Fold this sequence. Notes:
Layout: H1 2-5, H2 11-23, E1 29-34, E2 37-43, E3 49-63, E4 72-82, E5 85-86, E6 89-90, E7 93-94, H3 98-102, E8 108-114, E9 119-121
Antiparallel strand pairs: 1-2, 2-3, 3-4, 4-5, 4-8, 6-7, 8-9
Amino acid sequence: MIACAHAEADEESLKDSFAEQIAGSESVTDFVRDGNELTFSGTDGKGGAAVWKVRIESSLVEPNAYDEEMPFQGRIASEWIADGEVVEYLGNMTALPQEFLDRGIGQECWAFWIEAERRWDW
């Protein structure tokens, strides 16, 4: 809990939070993070399981001038690979399993920094 009290709205905390969102998914097991690369087993979205690799390609944190309670917004762009095959992303269309999308994460996703709680909200 002490580490949470000192959290800052920066790219590293954004990437940490993104990784935690994935790791906290119900079907995810064997989660490993190595820098900007995440590997794990989880649902394939079709009733089976897949071995996943997610590469964080870019991250950005910028001020959100319109909301004092959420003074920063963050963006993560990532590549998702299931069983060696890239999961295509076409703008707002994705073939990622709904479990991940329901947690607010995907190939391109946004989060807001909740100042009072010192954490990212997806």
